[in-house]
From TrEMBL:
The lineage of its organism: Eukaryota, Viridiplantae, Streptophyta, Embryophyta, Tracheophyta. This is Leucine-rich repeat-containing N-terminal plant-type domain-containing protein. Pfam families: LRR_1. It comes from Brassica cretica (Mustard). Keywords: Leucine-rich repeat, Membrane, Receptor, Repeat, Transmembrane, Transmembrane helix. The chain crosses the membrane at residues 144-166. Gene3D superfamilies: Ribonuclease Inhibitor. Belongs to the RLP family.
Length: 195
């Protein structure tokens, strides 16, 4: 088999993996269907491929850089899919025009005029926002830590003050020490002001 044209047949699902084993195939046309999935790296098995049309489907993911290994590829069209990432623009792939890629909003690089730097900056910003959200989860734990610490402090203080109000030897000793401390502070203050 040298050519396979299954265009406009309302095909759905992924492209069967057996297709990528047709080593002598020259032309593949799966355009205008409802195919999903990604273009597999095993496309590099089709060394004799001269024409590949996957346009007007629902394919997603990156365009595999292995396409550059297909030296005979003269026609290539993946327009109007959901492909994303940087277009592999090397070897003979530089000969394909922007029309081969239109309708894929997430594709960037040559031959389109869309910069991949913006996409990379967006991905970096998205990752930073995710990290901040994860750190934000840690802040919620810190808030609970502060509330718990405050509750423990208040409870301990109440128990301490309650025990001081009970007439016991320990509470009398405590008030004596506090009174002695206040007296020393006042005498130190009096000496300091007089000098």
């Amino acid at each position: 088999m040298y050519g396979l044209d299954l265009s406009s047949n309302q095909l759905s699902g992924e492209i069967p993996v057996e297709v990528w084993d047709l080593k002598n195939i020259i032309s593949l046309n799966f355009s205008s269907n409802c195919l999903i999935g990604s273009i597999p790296d095993s496309i590099s098995n089709l060394k004799n491929l001269e024409s590949l049309d996957l346009s007007n489907n629902k394919l997603h993911g990156n365009i595999p850089p292995q396409l550059a290994d297909l030296n005979n590829l003269g026609y290539f069209n993946v327009s109007y899919n959901d492909l994303s990432g940087e277009i592999p623009f090397k070897a003979h792939l530089v000969t394909f025009e922007a029309t081969s890629y239109i309708g894929n909003d997430q594709l960037c690089g040559l031959p389109t005029n869309k910069s991949c730097k913006i996409s990379k900056d967006f991905e970096k910003q998205f990752k930073e926002e995710e990290e901040e959200e994860e750190e934000g989860d840690g802040l919620i734990d810190m808030v609970w830590f502060y509330w718990t610490s405050g509750g423990v402090f208040i409870s301990t203080s109440l128990v301490l003050f309650a025990s001081l109000f009970i007439d016991s030897r320990w509470s009398r000793e405590w008030f004596y020490r506090v009174d002695l401390f206040v007296h020393r502070v006042q005498s130190f203050k009096g000496r300091f002001l007089c000098n």
